[in-house]
Amino acid sequence: MRPSNDDLQKLLKEIKEELSTSDPIQASEKLYKVAEECVKTLAIKYNVKIKVRKDQYVDASLIESWSSYMLFQAVEKLSNILGKDLEEGWNTAWELHLRGFHENELTTDEILDRIVDVQKLLAFCGLI
Tell me: the pLDDT tens digits for 5-60? Predict the structure, then answer.
């Protein structure tokens, strides 16, 4: 079951609180998770077909477990429909996921600098 917009708004509030209390690792991952859910929601809304196996595509609405490969496919197709701001937002969210969460390389200020790009993506879902 997809999280509701209210759930995602709550998560955005938690992100801001974590950044203000200097927990950039959790804030990075939560920001990525909001972006990920936004991509899934948009892929379903725009009836994007996702390649799941060689020469096999399915509607996004039928996918229960998304791989990063599937997410990047959805972003590419959605960017062709909605514009490059979506792709830029996703790429920044992915950077937060890798460098902010997994590698713990980003400072709070570096995360704050990147939020604007992710907000471009979230705007497509009506989250900001």
Answer: 677 677 777 777 777 776 778 888 888 998 999 999 999 999 999 998 888 999 99
pTM > 0.90: no
Domain that holds residue 29: 23-124
Per the CB < 8 A criterion, the answer to whether 29 and 17 are in contact is no
Q: Number of folded domains in the chain?
A: 1
**What's the pLDDT score for residue 115?**
83
Consecutive H or E run containing 12: helix 5-20
62: tokens are: 């039928």
Separation of alpha carbons 16 and 55, rounded Å: 42
Q: How many CA atoms lie within 13 A of 62 on its CB side?
A: 10
- CATH number of the domain where residue 75 is located: 1.20.120.330
